[in-house]
Write a structure and sequence with these properties.
four-stranded antiparallel beta sheet, 91 residues, mainly beta, single chain, three-stranded antiparallel beta sheet
Length: 91
């Protein structure tokens, strides 16, 4: 970053839209090992968990709609989600 002098690293492919949920939702594990993010890979927006140590990502949801939000619980045991039609927990 030219303003801060910090190194910025792209974690996801520029070929698809990927983003963090709203800025105040907890999406990083307490040990900073995992990042939860939304991505439209394959055309459908779902949640993924990326291991920041090796860059591997695992799809966590299989939503049928694109409108949803999510937040990790304070103990990292559950990812609470809403897909616009229902609320659910990913453990």
């Amino acid at each position: 970053d030219t303003y801060t002098g910090k190194r910025v690293v792209r974690l996801t492919s520029p070929d698809t839209v990927s983003h963090h949920e709203y800025f105040y939702y907890k999406m990083m594990s307490n040990d900073s090992r995992y990042l939860i993010y939304a991505s439209a890979q394959g055309g459908q927006r779902n949640l993924y968990r990326m291991d920041l140590g090796n860059g591997d990502a695992v799809q966590l949801t299989d939503c049928k709609v694109n409108d949803f939000s999510a937040c990790l619980t304070s103990d990292d045991r559950h990812l609470i989600c809403s897909d616009g039609q229902s609320n659910f927990s990913v453990t």
